[in-house]
Amino acid sequence: xxxxxxxxxxxxxxxxLYIVRLIIKGKLREEYSIVWIVCTIVLILFSFWRNGxxxxxxxxxxxxxxxxxxxxxxxxIFIYLLHLSIVVSKLHSQNKQLAQxxxxxxxxxxxxxxxxxxxxxxxx
Amino acid sequence: xxxxxAAIVPAYNEETAIEAVVTxxxxxxxxxxxxxxxxxxxxxxxxxxxxxxxxLPCIALNLPINLGIGGxxxxxxxxALQNGYDYAIQVDGxxxxxxxxxxxxxxAAVDNSFDVVIGSRFISNEGFQSSTIRRxxxxxxxxxxxxxxxxxxxxxxxxxxxxxxxxxxxxxEYYPDEYPEPEAIVVYxxxxxxxxxxxxxxxxxxxxVSSIGTxxxxxxxxxxxxxxxxxxxxxxxxx
Lengths: 124, 239
Fold this sequence. Notes:
The complex is a heterodimer. Chain A is mainly α. The longest helix of chain A is centred in the last third of the chain and has 59 residues, at 65-123. Chain A contains 4 helices and no strands. Chain B is α/β, with parallel strands linked by helices. Chain B has helices at 18-32, 49-54, 68-82, 102-112, 132-149, 165-173, 180-190, 216-238; strands at 4-11, 35-42, 59-62, 87-90, 116-120, 161-164, 195-199. A 7-stranded mixed sheet of chain B has the order 3-2-1-4-6-5-7, sandwiched between helices. The radius of gyration of chain B is 17 Å and the shape is globular. The chains are: A mainly alpha, B alpha/beta. Chain A binds chain B through residues 95-96, 99-100, 102-104, 106-107, and chain B through 41, 59-65, 67, 71, 74-75, 78-79, 82, 177.
């Protein structure tokens, strides 16, 4: 096994461990972790199976195997960024609804308190 | 039966102008015998707007975070809907929309049974006419509305507009965030609401800063064009 292989495998495994730790600690939600776990497994797979990449490149008709990595990786990143934009948009709209609800409830609360205070002063 | 009207005043850093706006509306309501309640929506102002409006005869809605003009106005719409108002009229917090024009807009809605009435600067061309770049934008939106919807709206960027309860139900659900005025017209039109326009005179802002700077004008046109086209497509094909 080449040196770079050992390094790649170690880093991939550490990365996988870190993701698992984040999930356990509740810092990363499961639905967002799937992408990371899949990516890490792919990395580990090709770290062990060095010829796999060459084979895949030949099958797909890519002349230089590293180009396949760049194309694949950039594509995956774009998709994931789009996914994050969708998540942010959803959060944005939920956030807006919450803020509006708070403003309305605050007003109602203050009004009710005033009515109650007025009633109390009347009684006394 | 008297119609209950909520005057929705979105305010962002308007501590200097807001008092005159609220008093102006209340005075008109009294002299014209209109059942208007002023609802000020403070969009998380950084100045003393919250303190100023707390001492004024109005309903104060204080947003905990800054939502932008669309989100602020929508808060007012939600309030009006939940509290059983028949109409909601939007009046800017910077004093651009004179309270004396409110009765004219309300009358137009009641007499012609319009669902939406827009106070327009460009029918009689009196009073403050806005900057050149803004007017170019307004002509462009006029053309775009005619092309897509087949209706003519002379002043589609005017925020001085009244909507009835049926429209309130729609805008409480969906109202655009940024630069909502031209896009809202597309929504109203595709929901088959009857839109009317009334000539009004506007003043130059009494305080505060416009939500649209010079550089932002290009962004404004692009964003609103996109929003109009997307809203149009979404509503046209979801029916």
